[in-house]
């Protein structure tokens, strides 16, 4: 691994380090929840540039870091692109039904609040 490659390695918590309060905190923010909803709806990993978020680039970076450090997403570089994927299987093993319940509740709320 070159020095450049090492600087592009992102740290992720091991499954045993993921805590419920961290996951719930990450999912409690509307911007982060919208990221998770998009990832859940996609069969493929999504680049950070895919997301059209109503915040600055530095704030977007912060939101992705919170999601990664809480264990909700896994990020990896592919060339110069940072790809994002839900850690769905790990979250389901640790907290059965949690992610699906949050996604269903978010969909129900969106329907309820739609004009």
UniProtKB/TrEMBL annotation:
It comes from the Bacteria. Gene3D superfamilies: Winged helix-like DNA-binding domain superfamily/Winged helix DNA-binding domain. The keyword DNA-binding applies. CDD domains: HTH_ARSR (cd00090). Keywords: DNA-binding, Transcription, Transcription regulation. Residues 12-106 form the HTH arsR-type domain. This is HTH arsR-type domain-containing protein. It comes from Streptomyces spororaveus.
